[in-house]
């Protein structure tokens, strides 16, 4: 009998992460990205291949980051993105291996490759500054030039003229915009297709290879946050045509097999950022636009939360071979799956189950689907689904060796009545080594967003708490995705209201379990969950300890310092920040700081531009001045995504600090 051990924070270094499953045109192989953490405690990613029987081989081998695999139409070559030359560029490798060939040598790099239907060209994106000369763009930076650029950047005064001038992902924004290019493989020459002052998204080729469809920013995007446009570019006449009206949040357009329709994800922003995504169809013959399955109360996309994701994203609408239906990911009640949407309005659940699907692709005949998924006990793997016979085959087991060592806690689902009697879905993980008749401390976890959802996915943080003897309870209060439009919209204009009541009802429900010690409760959460942690401990003393992460404490200052602050007040609080300062104060935890008696650990990233560091500093200074038990931990060189893709050593330190604080005060 194998004696299993408890998971540790340091087990992060041993974990492997799959992403971007790309099935071959013939449907007999899947290329995917495998990310690991090397001996230097740095991320590295390689492209792997796995066949239908689960036999896998490593296709690329560097200590850099290879990603974005994209099969040629014949299935004999794979284009991918790699930073092995210094900048992210597009490379090409034979399906049978060998030496990879660098295809692009652009000054600002290249990414998001897409093959033309005839396999002779590759469309891609590359950033361009208005001051860049064309000849300069065609020559990749040398290491000396990169170092010089970084040195000059560190000394250059930042002159701000734009309303939105920073991004949590990118830092302070420069004037570069993502532009569309096409590489002719025979000549090796890249041709710039777009040339204006707006960002473009990854394009899609028309079936005849004569046009591209893509989404892009609208005019004055900072004054129209969230809005976008869908364009068709004719590569013969260079005509650019808008195909949807203003006021859409639109993305990921794809062509129907016969080239007469465009499908895209989007909505009309009726509920701002809380509006459910739909699949829209544009009939190119008459310009009509219709949404599929408008009567269904669920949104398109993967809104599941996890702290072990490694990049990649859900693809755009995937057309069936006959062009009569579309495949897309849907999030419902704590899981995401792949549904089929008929143009006749029908909906069929194709790949479902208690798990999160965070990437998929289809073969050229649209008979097989390769997908990446996670469950509460599986960090991530790749599987294959056969649409003809309905069979599903698990192709990888990348963490088998590590998982065989570990004793993990399996979540148990429950529902309870929240505010106004609304049904709320929740889960509980019992502590490792649980024994009937004993009592245990319980930690309430609160997710961020708020328009995301806890799900049937793997959470390292939750498993670590369970390994240290804590029960972990978590739920999806109103404002979460996965339960319909009314539910996801209900938090807007009511932060700290009925969402707070939902969370307290969750704790009340948990206290019915005889193993929960009501005198040893803790609470933690990040982003919106950090705001809610601050709100909770400023409105109740029932928790013995709290950890607030990347949080908001003051909505008034948030407006002027967050990369989304200036429109967030309107979107989420339904107020105009210039006039409604009193309302923003009313819903700010800092207003009630004197009520906070709970020992509080504040975890924040130094370079968080979503919920900037000053939010943590304000809260810390107030509590320290009041001589309350508080500690501020600032994580250097990190942004809002520290817990998901921050530096590995800092992710481990964060986990250990959370456990250490609860151990000390609970």
From TrEMBL:
Highest taxon, organism lineage: Bacteria
SUPFAM superfamilies: alpha/beta-Hydrolases, DPP6 N-terminal domain-like
Keywords on record: Coiled coil, Hydrolase, Protease, Serine protease
Species this chain originates from: Anoxybacter fermentans
Entry protein name: Peptidase S9 prolyl oligopeptidase catalytic domain-containing protein
Single GO BP term: proteolysis
MF annotations from Gene Ontology: serine-type endopeptidase activity
Residues covered by the Peptidase S9 prolyl oligopeptidase catalytic domain: 457-665
Family to which this protein belongs: Belongs to the peptidase S9C family.
Keyword check for Hydrolase: yes
Pfam family, one: PD40
InterPro entries with a match to the protein in the record: 6-blade_b-propeller_TolB-like, AB_hydrolase_fold, Peptidase_S9_cat, WD40
The UniProt record lists the keyword Repeat: no
Residue stretches in coiled coil: 131-159
